[in-house]
Amino acid sequence: MADTGVGGVPGVAQAADRGPRADRHDTDRDLLRRIEAELAAYLDRRRAEAAEIDPAFAAATEALRGFVLGGGKRIRPTFAWWGWRGAGGDPDDEITPAVLRALSALELIQACALVHDDLIDASATRRGRPTVHVAFADRHADAGWAGRPARFGAAAAILLGDLALAWADDMLRDAGLPAAALRRAAEPWRSMRTELLAGQYLDVLGQASADTSTHGALRINRFKTAAYTVERPLHLGAAIADAAPALVRSYRRFGADIGVAFQLRDDLLDVFGDPAVTGKAAGDDLREGKRTLLVALALERAEERGATAARTVLTDALGDRHLDAAAVERIRDVLCELGAAQAVEQRIAALAGAALDALTTADIAEPAASRLAELAVTATRRRS
After folding, report:
1. 196 and 151, same structural domain?
2. Global model pTM greater than 0.85
3. Which in 174, 242, 263, 320 has the greatest CB count within 10 A?
4. Buried b (16+ CB within 10 A) or exposed e, 183-199
5. What digits encode the pLDDT tens for the residues 97-151?
6. Which domain holds residue 370?
């Protein structure tokens, strides 16, 4: 029988009310504790409401709570916070608790995206634990319920992802922001949700249509990751602070470049990263058939050089669910031989440089300007 996690759901580990991870920047330690506290308090309230509906539904929401609080770097609310600070937000202002609650809602958008993405990609693990659809499928199998465990797991993941999205909207709306600030926040919030779903669809479409173009890969990165990871969180913080249009434009340029660089680092870590650090099996993107920029550049170079054998290694690997460690190692060699890995590293460096240039031309209050520059480096040089 699988180990039981939160609410009787196997594999979904219970989140302790703990402090920030040890590798987080000292400047943000207090911020991250406050974000965790806001999320925990909000999810506890919603779980109590769920219990009034049915204990089984409360157990499911407890699994969502465990997923949200059980890990993650809180990148999105952190960028949003410094976007607000850089636009003149005062941490000692009476509205600061409301701002923190509003920005913390970004983590529920992230939870929705991850739960659904794991289901779409048929990923088995997330943060070193079973993904939500796998955990609920295990629960079904252990209980001996009727029907197929995988179908139940998929249904539960869809519904919990939808619930996270609904609660994100609720958390933002009920955060206690002044009415004018809430109205300003609506534009980046609305755009972010649509862009995220557009990026998800383009990703699925790219896999189905076998699009291996660099343009297609970058388009997916722009909307699936960059927009809701950095660009729109910065825009959200700026909108709450009533920033000038020029600052919003600079934030968005910075955020788009850093967001794409963040995803490119993710692509490299998927193939070259240490699973003990990343929490995911090496080569998952290949098994899922993802047409990342790394793969697109490798195939492009193999075509230019007439490297038929290298191209075959890559095309055979895409979508191969049974890809083993030895095959992943061979693909690493091919990616390096073709210079694709180095090309992605160079693209990351170029994007980070362009993003930092956007910061230097903007009127951003300190210490936000310095902290955003540091976050840019952290986001693009990380190991997990």
Report:
1. no
2. yes
3. 263
4. ebbeebbebbbebbbbb
5. 999 999 999 999 999 999 999 999 888 888 878 999 999 999 999 999 999 999 9
6. 180-384
